Hints:
The structure is a homodimer.
Chain A: E1 6-14, H1 33-45, E2 52-53, E3 62-72, H2 81-88, E4 93-101, E5 113-121, E6 135-136, H3 143-153, E7 155-158, E8 173-184, E9 187-194, H4 201-214, H5 222-228, E10 243-249, H6 255-258, H7 260-263
Parallel strand pairs in A: 3-10, 5-6
Antiparallel strand pairs in A: 1-3, 1-4, 2-3, 5-9, 5-10, 7-8, 8-9
Helix pairs in contact in A: 3-4
Amino acid sequence: MEDRTRNIRLTLAYDGTAYHGFQRQAPQHGATVQGTLEDTWRRMFGEEIRMNMAGRTDAGVHAAGQVINFWSSAPIPLEKIPKAFNSYLPRDIRILRSREEGEKFNARRSARWKRYDYRIDHHEIADVFQRLYAWHEPVRLDRERMRRAAGFLEGKHDFYTFAAAGGVSRTFTRTLYRCRVGLEEELIRITCVGDGFLYNMVRIIAGTLLAVGKGKLKPEDMPEILSSRDRSRAGQTAPPQGLTLTYVHYGEEEPETVFPELFRESSPL
Amino acid sequence: MEDRTRNIRLTLAYDGTAYHGFQRQAPQHGATVQGTLEDTWRRMFGEEIRMNMAGRTDAGVHAAGQVINFWSSAPIPLEKIPKAFNSYLPRDIRILRSREEGEKFNARRSARWKRYDYRIDHHEIADVFQRLYAWHEPVRLDRERMRRAAGFLEGKHDFYTFAAAGGVSRTFTRTLYRCRVGLEEELIRITCVGDGFLYNMVRIIAGTLLAVGKGKLKPEDMPEILSSRDRSRAGQTAPPQGLTLTYVHYGEEEPETVFPELFRESSPL
């Protein structure tokens, strides 16, 4: 059993349905993932911790690969943390992996790039088993148009048009390595891989690509919508339940090497 | 608009998590799918209906293709029923299809065969997005052994050993056309297709195949376990959330013609 102070990194998944987002809020706003994690750790070890998270997720947004770090001197072997923590956590939050990091590691600032996936259920009648994990929009969507529009968003751009008010970023230039429209079983899946994301950026991209798929916007409009820096030119902000923070990368590897299937030109459509 | 009395058949899907089973119970036992459907119909048309269901499902059990029928003189075109009904129903119940049947049709008695699927999440850490739709059993399972055991259960047998107390059946001989162990993405899926199922039969089959996969029972034990007519010889009753009533068939077609992939010898394992 160790008891020196360590910088602990955890990878976790959660179903965001029951939470008012990841970030801790005043109790009257209801349970948050961070509050649940920090309070549970205190119950387990009597230790107050403060977590850094790779990506803030809003109420109803899910995570398959969120990453957090915190300093702790809890006397538990690193490899035993996931099982022990999971035995105290509610079943809609699961710790997947643990590791120790150097003192400079910060889950948010050290992240090199992230992957988000947004799911749309476009069938006339919603799939009851996906209702909490996809946006039900029962409309005919032209996926080829959506795919062309997504291509215009790839690369290094000023994404001010795709940022909701209320974000903390002061700079708006981000690099979207990949913005891909594909299929996941019966659902349409929009995958965004980038070096950083503005507040609600993926949900606004999803709402904009949906408007393209419906024919309300043209793929060729994207460059001008980007340069307009006018939020009203983009589509609506898609609802939270369709969004999942899938993966956060910290090493040197490029997205192509981690997710080669996303970069193959053979379209999944 | 028609207003003659019709025998209406509906196909529906539901997430059973929030319900105390399909069958209507005394209100103090909580909401049921049947109660929700009948009460919603009364609110829509001021008409009291009594439904027959193809297969009773217990608390927490799901359906992707449940079938019901009821007599109604509600003045609504048949094809408009799914959309109208869905607009009043909670989002965890969706009507998929409607059709009119002859007066002899009864969703339960007219059913020729049914398909159930049971899902097991055998990974060490449960998938948070499957926790309500699969049984989490973090154990190493020998799927080849499970598959051999399942093969012994196929055919016409007395399934008394695999029937829980509390069932209404007085006869115990059923034909299991197919009992297959396969993979569905990351989950193990046990698929049962048969002409009838005893109370908790699929959940007891799932618990028994799990015991075989763990090495607690041998595939070759199945014939003797069947003939023993001793419930204690079979495995535990697997929990409800892993079970889905997938499909009910009423026509002449054999299961092989409706689900050919289940009968191909190429194993999905």
